[in-house]
Design goal:
Number of domains: 1
Strand content: 5-15%
Oligomer: single chain
Mean pLDDT: 94
Strand order of the largest sheet: 1-3-2
Number of helices: 4
Length: 133
């Protein structure tokens, strides 16, 4: 972990509280949890700061969660340039894949395996099984 990077980040974003934790996370509305030291520490930190900047607090539909993750990584790319942090596209895509995979599994019909759609009330519906007469 680069202490100078963290001090600069805290100075640039005094409205956010930075705490140590077991994994990187954003706890709305203003807490950034910093995970353990690792090779992509700075980039993962910028990702969580991006969630805070973008005010990502809640989502109603699961696809919104994937959208928020994508937006946060896009913002992290911008911040990485500002802080001279190397952008690792492999890491970003791997992180996004965890949400893509989660959404794919969650949206599959347990009965027939077809991809379901989610309505605003959060319920998944199978176009095949629910349309059988």
């Amino acid at each position: 972990m680069d202490e100078m990077f963290l001090k600069r980040l805290q100075a640039d974003f005094p409205e956010f509280k930075f705490i140590s934790g077991k994994k990187f996370a954003f706890r709305p509305p203003k807490t950034i949890v910093l995970g353990p030291a690792e090779p992509f520490y700075a980039l993962l930190t910028l990702h969580e700061v991006s969630h805070a900047i973008l005010k990502h607090e809640t989502f109603r539909m699961d696809v919104e969660r994937l959208r928020m993750e994508s937006e946060a990584w896009e913002k992290a790319r911008e911040l990485a340039l500002r802080y001279d942090i190397e952008i690792n596209e492999g890491l970003i895509q791997d992180e996004l894949d965890t949400y893509r995979d989660w959404l794919h599994v969650k949206s599959r019909c347990k009965k027939c395996g077809l991809t379901c759609y989610q309505t605003p009330d959060g319920v998944y519906h199978c176009p095949r099984c629910e349309n059988l007469t």
